[in-house]
Amino acid sequence: MPGWEPLLAPVQPDAPVTEPAASPRRQPRTAKPAAVRRFADPFAAEDTGANCLRCGYLVEPAREERGLLTCAQCR
User: Which residues pair with 51 in a beta bridge?
Assistant: First the structure.
């Protein structure tokens, strides 16, 4: 019956250690333009939008038509 043999070859202690190649420097993060969030004005006749029940910002018209009373971020 054959004896046990290691799967990997033994590491030579005097072998030079290779350093990984330097990666290119990453670009710094840039600030994203802030999204403007509006409020529906209940006293303005031309503003018929609804405000979110959770955060108070304007509910998107498509969500309001489906009967949802929260904005897309609150869900």
Answer: 58
- pLDDT at residue 3 above 90? no
User: Does 48 map to a domain?
Assistant: yes
pTM for the model: 0.48
Task: Classify residue 73: in a domain, yes or no.
Answer: yes
Tell me how far the alpha carbon of residue 70 is from its chain's centroid.
Answer: 21
The reply to whether 75 falls in a domain is: yes
Report DSSP state, residue 45: S
Contacts of 63 (CB under 8 A, 6+ apart): 70, 71, 72
Which tokens belong to 45? 């006749």
Beta carbons of 70 and 54 less than 8 angstroms apart = yes
Residue 59 lies in a domain: yes
Measured CA to CA, the distance from residue 35 to residue 37 in angstroms comes to 6
